[in-house]
Amino acid sequence: MTFWRDKRVVVTGGAGFLGSAVVSKLRLAGCQNIFVPRSKDYDLRDQEMVRRLYTDARPQILLHLAATVGGIGANRLNPGRFFYDNAIMGIQLIEHARQFEVEKFVAIGTVCAYPKFTPVPFKEEDLWNGYPEETNAPYGLAKKMLLVQSQGYRAQYGFNGIYLLPVNLYGPRDNFDLETSHVIPALIRKCVEAKESDQRQIVLWGDGSPTREFLYVEDAAEGILLAAEKYSGSEPVNLGSGEEIAIRDLAKLIAAEVQFTGELVWDTTQPNGQPRRCLDTRRAKRLFGFEAKCNLRDGIARTVTWYLRCREREAIRAV
Prior knowledge:
Blueprint: H1 2-5, E1 8-12, H2 17-28, E2 33-35, H3 47-57, E3 61-64, H4 72-77, H5 79-99, E4 104-108, H6 137-157, E5 161-166, E6 168-170, H7 183-196, E7 201-205, E8 211-216, H8 217-230, E9 237-239, E10 244-246, H9 247-258, E11 263-267, H10 282-288, H11 296-318
Parallel strand pairs: 1-2, 1-3, 3-4, 4-5, 5-9, 6-8, 7-11
Antiparallel strand pairs: 8-10
Helix pairs in contact: 2-8, 3-5, 5-6, 7-9, 7-11, 9-11
């Protein structure tokens, strides 16, 4: 509790899905000086605005959570934008953090940075043993460069930057836009809308065989703050739950939670994405004591409950 009390902290992306969870936990930890730059005021792709951010906030710790991100469809449509936005934001933030002598910089990477055929569970030392899965490689590689920059700056300037690799996140306040969302919110919305309209089936991408690991957003926020407080090394660290599930089983779990009893149809003309994803999470436990608390079934139930309540409120406002 005392660690955060007097710290000046900037949280990029602090109004977003993960960022809002991190900001809430910072407040609970007693942090009194939290600065959340909004994109309308600070375009982090613009070097002068990045400099202005550091001048205005004078952070001791910067948690870089801002990202241009989406699911497989969004990655396929925007490979150039996803690469440029994520690379330029991180590169400029780290460079100016060095110039302003920020005490610690926490960069949030992505599981998409791992090679397409990484042995399961993914170990941090396998990060460079191949090319990422093609549909999200530009995004994954852009985020991966922040690890290279952090390590290079540590070697040359003594820069205290750490790099975390979370798996796919989910939970309340996630993005449920079917054009840009990830798999869990997309499945929840499709099942809810199909049930409401008495559809007999829903169509899902791929064949359902790939596996994924998911981390509840509040657990991810806890891991980030633990790392910021207790870890100051140069090696990347996985953040995950260690719980692997096939997409077809995930779809069945969500359909049951929503009480959608129709058929799940798989469109095999659409890509599967990476064949398997599951992290080795032992380094996070050893270095800063992080272990996920929320299992997938409970996290799905909480997320569905939150989404249904939001729909109810929207329906009431529309009357």
